[in-house]
Amino acid sequence: MSTDVTAKTPAPAPPGRGGSAAGDGLLRLMLDGMRRNMRQYGMLMALGLIVALFAVWSDGDLLLPRNVSNLVLQNSYILILAIGMMLVIIAGHIDLSVGSLTAFIGSMAAVLMVRNDLPWPVAVILCLAIGALAGAVQGFFIAYLGIPSFIVTLAGMLLFRGLTEIFLKGQTLGPFPKDLQKIANGFLPEVGPNTNYHNLTLLLGFALIAFVVFQEVRDRKRQLEFALEVPPVKLFVLKLVALVSAVLVVTLLLASYKGAPVVLLILGVLVVGFGYLMRNAIIGRHIYAIGGNLPAAKLSGVKDKKVTFLVFLNMGMLAALAGLVFAARFNAASPKAGLNFELEAIAASFIGGASMSGGVGTVLGAIIGGLVLGVLNNGMNLVGIGTDWQQVIKGAVLLAAVGFDVWNKRKVGS
Q1: What span, in angstroms and rounded, lies between the C-alpha atoms of 346 and 393?
Q2: Distance between CA 26 and CA 46 in Å, rounded?
Q3: What are the distances in angstroms from CA 121 to CA 112, 150, 326?
Q4: Is 27 helix (H, G, I), strand (E, B) or coil?
Q5: Which region holds residue 295: left if phi is over 0, alpha if psi is between -120 and 50, else beta?
Q6: pTM for the whole thing?
Q7: Which residues pair with 333 in a beta bridge?
Q8: What pLDDT is recorded for position 220?
Q9: Cis peptide preceding 119, ω within 30 of 0
Q10: Residue closest to 365 by CA, chosen among 378, 379, 347
Q11: pLDDT at 307
Q12: Local structure of 230: helix, strand or coil
C-alpha cells in the first residue's frame, strides 16, 4: 500500500521554479478536460480563432456594430435550416430538399400575399402548414415505406424547384407587406431613457447571461448527482467566463447600433426550445437512440418510424420558416432562391459536431457551425477574397471538421 502512495506522489519542483508546480497542475487539468470534451469545445475555439483572425485582418471592420447586426440578418435562414438539419442527421438521415423547399414556400407566400392579397398572418400560417405537409410526405416515404432519405429528398429537391418555377412562371414576384419585412429586417423597438445604448437589447442580453449561468450550473449539478464525468472546476469556470464574455460583447455591439434584430429573437426561441427538447424530452432521447443504434432502439421500444416521420415533418416546417424569412428579407420571391441552402445547412451541422453515422450532435453545435460559415463568408468578403477561393476555403473547413470527428472517435476508441 505504501508503495502505491509513494508512486503517485508528484516529484518536487526543480530549483528556481517554486511556483510552477501549481500552474503545471492547472494546465494538466485543463488539458485533460479539453481532451475529454474535445467535441464540445473544439468548434467554439475554432469560431473564436476565426473571429480574431478576420477582426485583425479587416482592421476591426468585422466587429463593427453594423457588421455584427448584418451577420445575424444574413445568416438567419441558414441557422434556422441548420437546427432542423441537425435533428435529421442525429436521426441518421439527410435532407437534400430544404433549399428547394424554402424557394417553394417563398413562391407560395408571394402568390398568396401579392397576387391574391391574403392577409400576411394568414398566409404565414398557411405557408408553415404547407412546409410541414411537405416534410410529412417525405417523412412518410422514408419512415413507413423504407425508401432511403437520400433518394426521397433528392426527388423532393427536384419537385419543389420545379413547382417554384411553375408558381412564379419564371419571374420574381414582390413586394411583400411591410409588417412581414420587419420579421427579417426589423429591430426591437426603443424603450426607456436615452443611454446611448438600445435598452431593450441590454435587458435581454443580461437576462440571457443569467440564463446561461443558471443552465450551466444546473447541468453540472445534475451530472454530479448521477456520478457522470464533468470537466474540472477551474475549466468549468473558464468556460463560464468565456460564454458570459461572448454574450456580453455581442450584446453591447448590437445595443450600440439599432438593437437586436427581430429574427434573432426567433432564433433564440428555436435554440432554447429545441435544445430543451433534445436534452430533456423523451422524443429527443429517441432521436439520439435511433441514430446511434437503431436495432437497440427498436428492442428498447422506441417507435422509430414515428420518430423519423416527426423529424422530417419538423424539418419541413423549419424550411418553410426559413423560406418566409428569406423572401421577406429580399422583399421578393425568386425562382433561384434557396440555391445550395441544403449544402450550407448540412455543412453547418457537420462543422458543429454532428457525426456521419448519426446519434451525435447538439442544437447549439448547429448554431456554432452556421456562425463559423457566416463569419468565414463575411470576413472573406471584407478582406476581398474572391468567390472562387471562398469555396475552396469553406470546403477545406468542412473536410477538416469531419476529419477531426473521425480522428476524435478513433482516439477515444483506442
Answers
A1: 16
A2: 22
A3: 11, 34, 16
A4: helix
A5: alpha
A6: 0.87
A7: 173
A8: 87
A9: no
A10: 347
A11: 96
A12: coil
What does the alpha-carbon distance between residue 14 and residue 392 come to, in Å, rounded to a whole number? 49
Mean predicted confidence (pLDDT) in 191-202: 88
Rounded CA-CA distance 71/87 in Å is 24
Between the alpha carbon of residue 5 and those of residues 2, 9, 24, 49, 118, the distances in Å are: 5, 6, 21, 42, 79
Alpha helices (H) in 144-189, listed in sequence order: 149-168, 178-185
Closest CA to 106 of 292, 324, 315: 324
Q: Residue 19: phi, psi to the nearest 5?
A: -90, 0
* C-beta of residue 97 within 8 angstroms of C-beta of residue 84: no
Rounded CA separation 91/156 (Å)? 19
Helix then strand then coil, % of the chain, to nearest 5: 75, 0, 25
Where would I find the H helices in 195-232?
A: 199-225
Q: Which three three-digit cell numbers place residue 90?
A: 442525429
Give the 3-state secondary structure of 330-391.
HCCECCCCCCCHHHHHHHHHHHCCCCCCCCCCCHHHHHHHHHHHHHHHHHHHHCCCCHHHHH
Answer for the pair 174, 333: CB distance below 8 angstroms, yes or no.
yes
Q: If we measure between CA atoms, which residue out of 47, 46, 59 comes closest to residue 383?
A: 59
Q: Nine-digit cell at 258?
A: 439599432
Instruction: State the Cα torsion 402-405-406-408 to the nearest 10°.
Output: 150
Residue identified by cell 416546417 is 317
* Higher pLDDT among residues 28 and 192, named by residue: 192
Cell 429574427 belongs to: 263
Cβ(143)–Cβ(203) below 8 Å: no
Neighbours of 258 (CB within 10 A): 16
Summarised one tens digit per residue, pLDDT across range 141-179 is 999 999 999 999 999 999 999 999 999 988 999 899 999
Contacts of residue 94, defined as CB under 8 A and 6 or more positions apart, other chains included, come to 88, 149, 150, 153, 346
C-alpha to C-alpha distance for 397 and 394, rounded to whole angstroms: 5
C-alpha cell at 70: 448584418
Which three-class secondary structure state does DSSP give residue 91?
coil
Sign of CA dihedral 147, 153, 158, 162: positive
Q: Which residue has the cell 443580461?
A: 206
Give the Cα separation of 73 and 77 in Å (integer).
8
Task: For residue 256, give the 3-state DSSP assignment.
Answer: coil
Q: Report pLDDT for 403.
A: 78
Question: How far is Cα 357 from Cα 163, in angstroms, rounded to an integer?
Answer: 33
